[in-house]
Write a structure and sequence with these properties.
Blueprint lengths: L229 H4 L4 H5 L9 H8 L1 E3 L2 E2 L6 E2 L17 H5 L9 E3 L4 E2 L2 H5 L6 E4 L13 E2 L20 E3 L4 E3 L6 E3 L21 H4 L2 E5 L13 E7 L2 H5 L2 H12 L10 E7 L3 E5 L8 E5 L14 E3 H18 L10 H12 L4 E7 L34 H12 L2 E9 L5 H9 L4 E6 L3 H17 L2 E11 L3 E7 L3 E3 L3 E8 L4 E7 L8 E11 L5 E13 L2 H6 L3 H15 L5 H27 L5 E3 L6 H9 L13 H11 L4 H8 L2 E4 L1 H5 L7 H5 L15 E5 L3 E6 L5 H8 L18 H16 L6 E6 L5 H5 L15 H13 L3
Parallel strand pairs: 5-26, 7-11, 12-13, 12-17, 17-18, 18-19, 30-31
Antiparallel strand pairs: 1-27, 2-3, 4-6, 6-24, 8-9, 9-10, 11-26, 13-14, 13-16, 14-15, 20-23, 20-25, 21-24, 22-23, 25-26, 28-29, 29-30
Helix pairs in contact: 8-9, 8-13, 10-11, 11-12, 12-18, 15-16, 15-17, 15-19, 16-17, 16-25, 22-23
The structure holds zinc ion.
Amino acid sequence: MGTENPGRPSFPARPPPMTPFASSGPVIGSGGSAFRPTPPPPGQNPLPSPSIGPQMGSGTPAFRPSPPARFNDPSVSAPPTAYAPPATGPYQRFQTPQFPPPAQVAPGHGPPLQAPGGSPPSSYRPQTQVSSLPMGTPPQSVNFVQPAGSVPRPNFQLPFAHADSSYPGPRANMQPPLPGYVTNQPNPMTQAPTMASSFLSQPGGFSPAPPTSSPPFPAQPGSLYPPSSAAPMGAYSRDQMQYPGSAPPLAGIQGLAEEFSSLSLSSLPGSIEPGLDLKALPRPLDGDVEPKSFAEMYPLNCSPRFLRLTTSAIPNSQSLASRWHLPLGAVVCPLAEATDGDEVPIVNFAGGIVRCRRCRTYVNPYVTFTDAGRKWRCNICSLLNDVPGEYFAHLDATGRRIDLDQRPELSKGSVEFVAPTEYMVRPPMPPLYFFLIDVSMNAGRSGMIEVVAQTIRSCLDELPGYPRTQIGFITYDSTIHFYNMKSSLTQPQMMVVSDLDDMFLPLPDDLLVNLSESKSVVETFLDSLPSMFQDNVNLESAFGPALKAAFMVMSQLGGKLLIFQNTMPSLGVGRLKLRGDDLRVYGTDKEHALRIAEDPFYKQMAADFTKYQIAVDVFAFSDKYIDIASLGTLAKYTGGQVYYYPGFQSAIHGQKLKHELSRDLTRETAWEAVMRVRCGKGIRFTTYHGNFMLRSTDLLALPATDCDKAYAMQLSLEETLLTTQTVYFQVALLYTASCGERRIRIHTAAAPTVADLGEMYRQADTGAIVSLFSRLAIEKTLTTKLEDARNSVLLRIVKALREYRNLYAVQHRLGSRMIYPETLKFLPLYGLALCRSTPLRGGYADAQLDDRCAAGFTMMALSVKKMLKLLYPNLVRLDEYISKPSSQANEFEDVVKRLPLMAESLDSRGLYIYDDGFRFVLWFGRMLDPELSKSLLGPDFAAELSRVILGEYDNEKSRKLMKILEKFRERDPSYYQLCHLVRQGEQPREGFFLLANLVEDQIGGTTGYVDWLLQIHRQVQQNT
Ligand SMILES: [Zn+2]
């Protein structure tokens, strides 16, 4: 595989200067727009290389031996491919495949455009060979044929074997059989709880466990913080920590309640089976609650919306870490949206950014100043650094810098530095949006082209980076259509290339143009695009060749490539075939192969895209199998995102596409980024999970990233025993802002090391654990059966709770009670929800393959909050609020109350909304007041709801409902929640949209909450 060969570019070097344009004519990249930077000099890494200058990542901590210097040394052998790592433990560690940077070529190795890896891989043919078409001519009418015997051109062949050339016949309809639930009509009116209430809320009679650890957060005067500020942020005593705001510590029962929670399992009347009181089970009805103790302990830490640890008590030994059976690590969302008044301050150092000489840590609130202000000590590696002259300030009597209040980088956990030129290897790139639009028959018929064209047009003025923003388009069906958008034209010129096997660009420039200069041409193009292809009857999709063409256009600058794909790629390189409809594969060791890219072309292209700073977002639309597993690979390894609109119809899904595409185009984007998370001596991040490609062992390459992307990572202890009492983490994201400034966003946090497993549990963060857990489980489905992935979730929860039980069960004689830490009381339920989530649930019939894969790609990038909401969605009753005469404005907040996700929560007389962050389901009870139905549904109130699209009617109730939906959407803007209407008893829609998603219920072959807990409890008790 080309990607695993460091030092060798993945496409062959160009031939010596024999190309028609090497000695005369326009040289690609030399002319063109003023915003197109000069190509990098020969052999120079087009990426900001961490090995050059004081860039982020250039420092390898001296105390941490780095792996062999493969980064710059082409002679070093390839890193092992990370695709099939050895299985260890319940989860394998899935490292994202690494790819090497382009080769560093020895100086003097030829002119710029011939150096492998240094030259943009464009190819060009003289314009005279290409027919220019006026807009609107059907593209089928012109074929560009490569002249025989033409002069040798740069060879741009990717080194893979072509897949089977036979084009799959008509595809089987992938319409699913009904999902695998059994109709289980709830009757909330009569259904009584089936379990006797036996929950004891007060585990009375036990005395609190004596503290078994040394105080985990000792005060460290003079080392942690400037002494004068130690008081407010101070080191807390263990008791203050455990019982915030209530020192001295509570004793007795309450104290124990702080230690752990428990559920009693008692026999139900008439049964020998142990039971649980359904009503008393813990449920996360308040959604994600960010852990407070972390911020209280260390007020200088960055906000948890940027960084959350799975436990903020770091084990001080490998033996202790091995008893923590849950994931140990962090979830990082470096660009999380600011809450009002909490924007990250921007700092511009006049004399260069202050960093540790040894480990390259950025100056932060936890460094300490000594020697009358002339030295500072690095909090990560303890090295004493000189304070640069221009950064010097005197210390006051308490040792605090007198300018501390004017220095955000010394007083805030999050800060953004403006990076000077040594953090660049080329001028900061302009924001660039390139669109690759499938215009085959269904794309026009479904209305996709129209919605896409209109949305892009409406966003033109809001694209970030004016006036530098660049834009370009390619459309394709069985041929590739290029558009000359030169600003001097009155309308764009279309050029059609039909030679799919040997892709080239028909024009060297003007396929990519400056938006502000060519805006009217771009607008004309977008206005006419839908009509150009509305009668297109071409069913083919030359996706792979189109992708290569887009790569050639974009590779000089990088940027964002947005792909709109309507059918399965059928022509040229990267064509795919129908798979996934073979029932027999499920349950065998071949099953997982359906969930990964079939053709190495996709991973290879992703590697090439990342290398040239191109991020790919995939928008897929089809009512048939389209192979999201393969297409999504492009997004996964380039920092992109997958959007999936199965069976797209603009009348139904248009609004959703419009919103999500608009957000994608207009949200603040970080370009050509790399991210590294540093941490203190003795610990190390070892695995990373999300959408990116790993460059070197710990540098994440992110051609683009934004507020909607989170990344998870696992920690390991490198040393048997940690001697420090505090460990520090520092996230550094080096990127180009849309305004053209190079920036470094820094988030710093501290956490104590502990010698006590109980303390690790007390400081556990379920949200972070579940987020990391979900990513690990989804990755596991790429190498094993679904069942194995689900079992591994169960197994880890069991191991963790068993270890916990062993801490307390004997001394407290807990007998058969189920015990768990208060901090992890929702973990079993989230674990169940994860096993029933789209990527993991059931088997062949329970989710379509494309749905599974799309959900998997999406979940890999979710923030903690969104992940938890997807796993345990909101269920809220609305009819009472809507029917009440309108009074106070804020009334709504009091009325909205989340309900347990079970059929028992639904009353036939009610109207409910189910909101998982990606869609709404509005459930109309069978006995809902008909007047209310009429008000909300208008003339459609009696119709079958599958055909009804919710709209606003001229009455108070309808307006109120629409207002509620609007409010919900505003709170959760990353995706647009399309509203599906379902009437009670309307099958199969009710089952599909709602009942199958009520995760607490046992439906069909699935496990319900009670059974799940009993299963966990039984397994926990084994071997205790
Ligand atoms: Zn250091």
